[in-house]
Amino acid sequence: MEHGDNHITVIDDEGNEQLCEILFTFESDEFNKSYVLYYPVGAEEDENGEIQIYASSFTPGDEEGQLQPIETEEEWDMIEEVLDAFLAEEEEEEEK
C-alpha cells in the first residue's frame, strides 16, 4: 500500500497495481486494529447507483503499508456498522 493524500495504490496477488481512493480510515478498540475503506478510482456504479467498497486492516506508520485481509465475520459486521453510520452521516450532510 502506497500513500497519497487520499489515494493508495493496492497491489493484488498477481502484482497488478490499482489506484484507489480512500473513503475513510478508523481504529477499532474491540479488535485493536486500524482499518481503511477504499474503492478503485474511476469505479463505475452498478444498477443501484452504488460502487463496491473494499476494506482492509493496516498497521499505522508501517513503512511498507501492507494491507491485511479482514479475518472474521465479527470484524465484517463491525465494519458494515461503521460504514452504514458513515454513509448515513454523508447523506444527512447532502440534504442540508
UniProtKB/TrEMBL annotation:
<protein>
    <recommendedName>
        <fullName>UPF0473 protein Cdeb_01942</fullName>
    </recommendedName>
</protein>
<dbReference type="InterPro" id="IPR009711">
    <property type="entry name" value="UPF0473"/>
</dbReference>
<dbReference type="Pfam" id="PF06949">
    <property type="entry name" value="DUF1292"/>
</dbReference>
<comment type="similarity">
    <text>Belongs to the UPF0473 family.</text>
</comment>
